[in-house]
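Before relying on records like the one below, remember that each one covers exactly one chain. Contacts with other chains, cofactors or solvent are not represented anywhere in the record.
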Amino acid sequence: MALRRRDFINLSALAASGVFTGLHSSAFAQKGTKELSDITGDVSPISVAEREARIAKAQQLLVQHNMGALVLDCGTSLEYFTGISWWPSERTMVAIIPVKGPVAYVCPAFEEPRLREQLTIGKDVYAWQEDESPYKQIVTVLKNAGITSGTIGIEEQTRFFIADGIRKEAPQLNYVSGDPVSIACRLVKSPAELALMQKANDITLAAIKMGISQLKEGMAPPELSAIINKAQAQLGGDPDFALCLFGEASAFPHGTKVPRTLRKGDIVLMDCGCKVHGYCSDITRTVVYGAAPTQRQQEIWNLEKKAQAAGFAAAKIGVPCGYVDAAARKVITDAGFGPGYKTPGLPHRTGHGIGMDGHEWGNMVKDNPLVLEAGMCFSIEPTIAIPGEFGVRFEDCVYMTAEGPKWFSQPAKSIQEP
């Protein structure tokens, strides 16, 4: 079902109805999940035409940076440019984007039919047998593209044994990071990418709503995680993660191994995400279970909201990413926390880039000079961690437009309306 803004739950009403005190029945929980249905019918995967445009942009960037080709190992950038998802085994499979001409692939010979099933970009496959060197084939691809000297870009996810194998086979070539090509392409999202990310965020927000509605005293964090991930799947997403932390554990940004079940008055922190056609969401909500928030919980919750709003206000076209971190962090340190990354306070950067990977380039971190431009996407999540007590984090992602940032998910209104 589509989540309308007026459908956002009111925690006070739920508490009064018994949902937050463990009085709801298992039938309620089952009914809640059964009512969910796929909401992804109005979005489509990235088209072949868009991938072809990405290849063309990459080739323009290869020219600008004096590179003859870009080598892509299995990973996100391979899928970004070619649409191919391939498990990174010890058997080398790479794509090569030459500065001119079509994309070519090198893969194990017995895998060639499986690779060809996925091909939509380029058609040349150079196969190697189990007793042969894949690096000779890679060098052959380069020679056939007219590249016998100069510089080759190696995409950052390329594993060392592959990069080293190519270098040994063609020592006359110069090898450099392919970041100026791959990052420059992936950093700025297209309207089609933004639509997929929006849908992923819609799904995750609805799933968190479902999770909150089924909180019950004595439940363990994995139970809540399972409810949220099941909801994300039913809504049409590919569940990526659902980190759920109760009470003191919420002060650990990425959790703790110490077991903890839910009690009345606990902070409940839910950091969740899914993918839709390969594109990510990442949302965190913090609530109080089963009781009115204490004054301390309310004050920290309000401070966190103020810090997130300051980060959003600082995000402007042409402004360095570091400014977003500085603005959000100042709110927290001005309140007496920190300084810097010390706790109690904000122990990590204010945000990270996001796209096909949950964490990409464009981090909102101190002194990052990267300038914000339209199409960049990132989280704003200035956690306040108070060891021994609790932590509060709001995380919502934004995309930059010419007019400034826009939220993928609307921030929490209040501790009762997350």
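Residues 1-32 have pLDDT under 50 and may be disordered.
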